[in-house]
Amino acid sequence: MVAHPDRVMIFDTTLRDGEQSPGCSMTRPEKLRVARALAELGVDVIEAGFPAASRGDFEAVEAVAREVQGPIICGLARCNPDDIELVARAVADAQHKRIHVFLATSAIHRQYKLNMAQDEILRLAATGVARARELCEDVEFSPEDASRTEIEFLAQVVETAIAAGATTVNIPDTVGYTVPDEFAELFRYLRKNVRGIENIRLSVHCHDDLGMAVANSLTAVVAGARQIECTINGIGERAGNCSLEEVVMALKTRSAFFNLHTNIQTNRLYPTSRLLSSITGQPIPRNKAVVGENAFAHESGIHQHGMLKHHSTYEILRPEDVGLQRSHLVLGKHSGRHAFRDRVKALGFELDELEFNRVFEEFKALADKKKELFDGDIEALVLRAEGSAHGPWTLAELATEARTGGTARAIVRLAHADGRLAECTATGDGPVDAAFKALEAATGIQVVLRKFEVQAVSEGEDAQGEARVYVEYNQRTYRGASVSTNIVESAARAFLEVINRIELSQAGARSQKERATAATAVTSA
Ligand code: KIV
Ligand code: ZN
């Protein structure tokens, strides 16, 4: 049934399992931006969300299904008709679509979460998959917590799902508990004992709680899986999911061992990883395999000596294979459009003419303040170009005053999209604290600051600082980020982005409520 037995499908769940992790939630435009990047990267399936989770999730899946061509667009559903029908509606306009139905099967989940006996699980799996098949040709079934399910019962569930019409069966290690040899054995057992398994695609979905998600996914592939579920930068519940860039580069670098390939354009890995990091505000650890800052750095004398003789002494991947085209070429205010365009392209970004012109204007403005612009500065300009939550508030002016041992003062002047102007002064423990307080007073939004960090995006004394702010408001986490050569300004802009996200989500919730009231009025009329 699997048409090309040596090809492994890459199922990306960054927008669903990845987005579920704390601090990684994305707005609809951000999800669309990531989905487009995933399509360019060459993933086979994009799991765009869990439509039953919220109206926003439904609309995001719908938008991705309408606007992103190429990959199969998939939505997740619990094993009940309402969820399944919701996914069918959300993915209806996709060029290629899939419904992904999941149901927990382990004794622990049956007893504590579902309070269901084995025969109820079998009945539910059969009816859920059958309903999904009535609505869509392509149906995936996942027995949640498969790796902790009694093996004979798991085989029964998988056989039932296949008989009901599942075209892909995914085996999740939901809590990141399994180890490679045990997991390979589980796949071999299923392939040997489940009727009809040769007619479907077997998939693997691993979490990283014990740091083995990539190893467990690879071992499943050796044992017969032909789809890997993974996320960019390995983001996901708790310790995260199997990292897409790591598992893909392992298959590619060790192709003589695995004899398998994927459709991933590996030179898109680094830009996609950076894009996601900038959108979610989750930094990539320096030592992260494949895309971390240090992945291609050689510090020790012995290693540097070896590298000078031949790169293969200490490097098993070439930076350019993953789209990392670092250069020591420095741009400045005399650099023209041509040089700037070449650098943007070499860094792996494709901008349309409108975006390019805007980023070039920002480049020129920055080059007036900063003598030399490095790759990090250019990446920051491109990634921030449309990543931030625009309006409704804009910062017209910020002035701060601070003295050692004294109280700092900040004055902010803001303009609102509805025409209001607001000006406030506040004092604080340092200029950043004072600026945050002045912004709260001016906008009337009081938040609890959870984290604030600043990091240089490039080199030199006049390096730009990227500020990231994480706050809590009404039991939800919001984040904002901004880049500037002035770190107090960058902190204030990041804080204002948080305020804007809060206002935008409040406006979204209000219009959702109004739509619901209007719908009730229509139904009761
Ligand atoms: O980890 C898990 O079990 C999941 C399923 C919904 C596939 O994410
Ligand atoms: Zn998962």
For the sheet with most strands, the description reads: 8 strands, parallel, barrel
**CATH classification, class level of the largest domain:** Alpha Beta
By helix and strand content, what is the structural category? alpha/beta
Overall pLDDT score: 91
Strand element count? 14
Shape: globular
Biggest sheet strand order reads 1-2-3-4-5-6-7-8
Question: So, CATH architecture of the largest domain?
Answer: Alpha-Beta Barrel
**Associated small molecules:** 3-methyl-2-oxobutanoic acid, zinc ion
Counted by DSSP, the helix tally is: 18
How many structural domains does the protein architecture include?
3
Uncertain residue segments: 521-525
Could you tell me the strand content as a percent range? 15-25%
In helices, the fraction of residues equals 40-55%
Please name the fourth-level CATH homologous superfamily of the largest domain: Aldolase class I
Radius of gyration: 25 Å
Distance between the termini: 53 Å
CATH topology of the largest domain: TIM Barrel
